[in-house]
Amino acid sequence: MTRLFGKRGMIPLRWLGLTALALALTAAGPAAAGQGDKKPARRAILLVTFGTSVPQAQKVFAGIEEAVRRAHPGMEVRWAYTSAKIRAKLAKTGQRLDSPEEALARLMAQDYDRVAVQSLHVIPGAEYSDLAAVVRGFANMEAGFRPSLGLPLCATTDDLQVVCKAVLADLPAGRRPGEAVIFMGHGTHHPAGVVYPALAYILGKSDPLAFMATVEGYPELDAVMGELKAKGVTKAWLVPFMTVAGDHAMNDMAGDEPDSWKMRLKAAGVEAVPVMRAISENPAIVAVWLRHLDACLKTLD
Ligand code: CO
User: Fold this and answer.
1) Which of 111, 170, 191, 275 has the highest local Cβ count within 10 Å?
2) C-alpha 240 to ligand 1 mean position (Å)
3) How far apart are the CA of 131 and the centre of ligand 1, in A?
């Protein structure tokens, strides 16, 4: 195409008219750029999440994808789940999800050569580290194939400030003064687990009754319950601090078993109100991932 225009002076005018028509027709056909075409678009975005088997939570991913497509119209967008357990569970119901390795191999085989791999993980923990290793492996596989990895949600102290502001601005309107809000983070034994006490600190600076506790790490709910007692709090809102309000939110947070957060708080005399809304349903949170994706795409230029 560029060559044609470069020689423009040598092409009879009526040919140019036909060429322009052909180009216009090609551009008008939405399918033309996809299959069938020998040279597909060279850049793609691969969104990578832990995954979920909860259908309601999967809808959240559709919202993220929509925001990504809006920000990068016409770009190929694909998904991969890092959790083998979730992929196996979904496969039984006929839903075939790629691992990051499978998705990258497919993109490479289909002649994409620049892939922005955007982590939709919350912290740069074990899942993210594993993903980074996969991306490094593919970067060394074939000359010309260049994947790049975008940072997870809480990667820098600036991210933490923005994220805390975003979740505090998105609390249920029904919360009254004196009522606490407890965010449920996943938690981890990975060194990146230090992000959770950092989040707790920043949340508490903005709102003395906003707390962070984790399912599998530090800080623990017991410590938060101690603070609630010390402050005489009798009502707390429970909010998932996770990409999706999936299994942990439904069972560990809001479940009716005696060891759920809701029931433990109730046993301690605190009325607990679960909010089944994931952080990724908050556009200000998605904006942080989009910013990281932009930075990732820039490294591909
Ligand atoms: Co878990």
Assistant:
1) 275
2) 12
3) 17
